[in-house]
Design goal:
single chain; about 140 residues; alpha+beta; OB fold (Dihydrolipoamide Acetyltransferase, E2P); five-stranded mixed barrel; 5 strands; rod-shaped
Length: about 140
Protein backbone atom coordinates (compact mmCIF):
# COMPACT_ATOMS: atom_id res chain seq x y z
CA UNK A 1 0.00 0.00 0.00
CA UNK A 2 1.22 3.52 -0.72
CA UNK A 3 2.32 5.61 2.31
CA UNK A 4 -0.19 8.43 1.82
CA UNK A 5 -3.07 5.93 1.73
CA UNK A 6 -1.97 4.48 5.05
CA UNK A 7 -1.89 7.99 6.56
CA UNK A 8 -5.37 8.71 5.16
CA UNK A 9 -6.75 5.52 6.67
CA UNK A 10 -5.14 6.40 10.01
CA UNK A 11 -6.64 9.91 9.81
CA UNK A 12 -10.11 8.46 9.13
CA UNK A 13 -9.85 5.95 11.98
CA UNK A 14 -8.73 8.68 14.40
CA UNK A 15 -11.51 10.98 13.20
CA UNK A 16 -14.16 8.33 13.80
CA UNK A 17 -12.68 7.52 17.22
CA UNK A 18 -12.86 11.24 18.09
CA UNK A 19 -16.60 11.23 17.42
CA UNK A 20 -17.03 8.63 20.17
CA UNK A 21 -14.64 10.16 22.73
CA UNK A 22 -15.05 13.94 22.25
CA UNK A 23 -11.66 14.62 23.82
CA UNK A 24 -10.25 16.67 20.91
CA UNK A 25 -6.98 14.73 21.21
CA UNK A 26 -7.79 12.02 18.69
CA UNK A 27 -9.19 14.58 16.26
CA UNK A 28 -5.96 16.56 16.42
CA UNK A 29 -3.95 13.39 15.85
CA UNK A 30 -6.22 12.63 12.89
CA UNK A 31 -5.46 16.12 11.54
CA UNK A 32 -1.75 15.47 11.96
CA UNK A 33 -2.14 12.19 10.05
CA UNK A 34 -4.00 14.07 7.29
CA UNK A 35 -1.18 16.63 6.99
CA UNK A 36 1.33 13.76 6.94
CA UNK A 37 -0.67 12.11 4.14
CA UNK A 38 -0.10 15.32 2.15
CA UNK A 39 3.61 15.18 2.93
CA UNK A 40 3.74 11.52 1.87
CA UNK A 41 1.91 12.28 -1.36
CA UNK A 42 4.70 14.64 -2.47
CA UNK A 43 7.22 11.83 -2.02
CA UNK A 44 8.87 12.50 1.35
CA UNK A 45 10.60 9.41 2.80
CA UNK A 46 9.04 7.58 5.78
CA UNK A 47 11.47 8.98 8.42
CA UNK A 48 10.56 12.53 7.33
CA UNK A 49 6.86 11.58 7.36
CA UNK A 50 7.24 10.44 10.97
CA UNK A 51 8.87 13.78 11.84
CA UNK A 52 6.04 15.68 10.12
CA UNK A 53 3.48 13.63 12.04
CA UNK A 54 5.29 14.09 15.37
CA UNK A 55 5.70 17.85 14.84
CA UNK A 56 2.11 18.51 13.76
CA UNK A 57 0.69 16.26 16.47
CA UNK A 58 2.78 17.98 19.13
CA UNK A 59 1.83 21.44 17.89
CA UNK A 60 -1.84 20.48 17.78
CA UNK A 61 -1.88 18.96 21.24
CA UNK A 62 0.14 21.74 22.85
CA UNK A 63 -1.36 24.76 21.09
CA UNK A 64 -4.86 23.85 19.89
CA UNK A 65 -6.15 21.35 22.45
CA UNK A 66 -6.18 23.80 25.39
CA UNK A 67 -8.21 26.27 23.29
CA UNK A 68 -10.67 23.58 22.20
CA UNK A 69 -10.89 22.23 25.76
CA UNK A 70 -11.62 25.74 27.12
CA UNK A 71 -14.45 26.24 24.61
CA UNK A 72 -15.95 22.80 25.23
CA UNK A 73 -16.05 23.26 29.01
CA UNK A 74 -17.36 26.81 29.24
CA UNK A 75 -19.89 27.40 32.00
CA UNK A 76 -23.49 27.67 30.90
CA UNK A 77 -24.26 31.36 30.38
CA UNK A 78 -28.01 31.08 29.96
CA UNK A 79 -30.49 29.47 32.28
CA UNK A 80 -33.12 27.11 30.87
CA UNK A 81 -36.26 25.44 32.13
CA UNK A 82 -37.29 26.15 35.71
CA UNK A 83 -33.86 27.67 36.42
CA UNK A 84 -34.83 30.55 34.12
CA UNK A 85 -37.78 31.37 36.41
CA UNK A 86 -35.59 32.19 39.40
CA UNK A 87 -35.60 35.94 39.96
CA UNK A 88 -38.71 36.51 37.84
CA UNK A 89 -41.67 38.45 39.24
CA UNK A 90 -44.97 36.69 39.94
CA UNK A 91 -48.43 37.88 40.95
CA UNK A 92 -50.14 36.30 43.96
CA UNK A 93 -53.58 34.89 43.00
CA UNK A 94 -54.29 33.17 46.33
CA UNK A 95 -52.69 33.92 49.69
CA UNK A 96 -49.23 32.36 49.97
CA UNK A 97 -48.11 30.79 53.24
CA UNK A 98 -45.44 28.31 54.23
CA UNK A 99 -47.83 25.51 53.25
CA UNK A 100 -49.90 26.69 50.29
CA UNK A 101 -50.53 29.40 47.72
CA UNK A 102 -51.01 30.20 44.05
CA UNK A 103 -49.16 32.68 41.80
CA UNK A 104 -49.27 33.71 38.15
CA UNK A 105 -45.76 33.28 36.77
CA UNK A 106 -44.96 33.86 33.11
CA UNK A 107 -48.63 33.57 32.12
CA UNK A 108 -49.12 30.29 33.99
CA UNK A 109 -50.54 29.46 37.38
CA UNK A 110 -48.03 27.89 39.76
CA UNK A 111 -48.46 26.48 43.22
CA UNK A 112 -46.39 28.52 45.61
CA UNK A 113 -45.05 28.63 49.13
CA UNK A 114 -43.43 31.44 51.05
CA UNK A 115 -39.62 31.35 50.91
CA UNK A 116 -39.57 32.67 54.47
CA UNK A 117 -41.84 30.28 56.37
CA UNK A 118 -42.93 33.00 58.81
CA UNK A 119 -44.48 35.17 56.07
CA UNK A 120 -48.08 35.32 54.88
CA UNK A 121 -48.24 37.02 51.47
CA UNK A 122 -51.60 38.55 50.61
CA UNK A 123 -53.47 38.20 47.32
CA UNK A 124 -52.47 40.88 44.78
CA UNK A 125 -48.87 41.18 45.98
CA UNK A 126 -46.01 41.07 43.49
CA UNK A 127 -43.34 38.57 44.54
CA UNK A 128 -40.00 37.33 43.27
CA UNK A 129 -39.32 33.65 42.64
CA UNK A 130 -36.43 32.64 44.86
CA UNK A 131 -36.37 28.92 44.11
CA UNK A 132 -38.36 26.23 42.32
CA UNK A 133 -38.88 22.84 43.96
CA UNK A 134 -40.68 20.42 41.69
CA UNK A 135 -43.72 22.33 40.48
CA UNK A 136 -43.82 24.73 43.42
CA UNK A 137 -42.32 28.20 43.35
CA UNK A 138 -40.84 29.52 46.58
CA UNK A 139 -41.54 33.24 46.57
CA UNK A 140 -40.64 36.36 48.55
CA UNK A 141 -42.41 39.73 48.38
CA UNK A 142 -40.79 42.49 46.32
CA UNK A 143 -39.69 45.57 48.23
Amino acid sequence: MIDWQIWLILAAVLGVAEIFTLTAALGLLGGAALITAGAASVGLPPPVQMLVFAATATLGLVLLRPVVHRHMHRPQLERFGVDALIGKPAYVLREVTALDGLVRLGGEEWSARAYDETLVIEKGTVVDVMEVRGSTALVYPQE
